[in-house]
Amino acid sequence: MRQLQAVRHGDPRAVLALVDVDDPPLRPDEIRIACSAVGLNFLDVMLCRGTYPAQPPPPVTPGVEVAGRVVEAGAGVDLRVGDAVLACPTMPAGALGERVVVKASLAVAVPVDADPLQLAALPVNYQTAWFSLRRAQVTGGETVLVHAGAGGVGIAATQLATAWGARVICTAGGPRKTRLCVEQGADVAIDYTDQDFVARVQDLTDGRGVDIVLDPVGGDVFGRSLQCLAFEGRIVPIGAAGGPPDPVDPLALTAANVSVVGLSWGSMYPYRRPDEVRAVYGELISMLGDRVRPVLDRVVDLAGTPDALGDLEARRTIGKIVVRPEGVV
Q: Which residue range is the domain that position 150 belongs to?
């Protein structure tokens, strides 16, 4: 079969290559999936560059969310050949290829008529947004600040927070992205290339601040976001696309009566809370087309994936990029 591999670390456009490989053997607790759609994420860039926190050595095939059909099932699993599934492969054997092998426990059956392009946008973005907001204990009437509001997680968080009755303020870069944030339900979108988001948030909240911040950016955005929190506010760091967050003095959190709530969905929840993850998939799929509306930047094939990851890294994308591998069964 054909798959993309990064045989060394570096720019995805330089290190990813299409190769022909044999299908790996199947263990009793595994399934083999024909990949209909694979979602791209910033962590795929990190895997290519060798900067992912749990970085496996090369060669690595990125792609941690896939929608497809079971073409082979191990003896010890309930899923059957022909079942439509949504799954999260584990590194270094990702889904950017024609087929992928995953543990059956990391896959969930989905309706056969569901659009795989929409499904492939759910695992990382919507599960992360869901658990982030729940970990922060969002309630109706609270105000949520969502950074990178035009990205996949940002869009998911805006849609879910709005569905649960919260007021949403987004930050995004440029008029095109801020317009999209409002289209997805944000009450206000701040163009961080033109405005100081800290001052703007204080103005929008009459100096009170926001109840919750979701931060996939990191860098100095994290430290500046602490200045946006209301009394007993919560900030959830969920990524570091802008670099490692600034260090924080715990006593400063104490003095301000605010909380940092850690959240890493993909590295923990599918393994520690699989039943809860499955239940959330059910909720998300039931909301598809209504309150859950993944925004696709583009659909590419395997050959177009390295350039797509380059655009994702450079923040030239909106929403989700999905790969449609060729040779799908």
A: 126-260
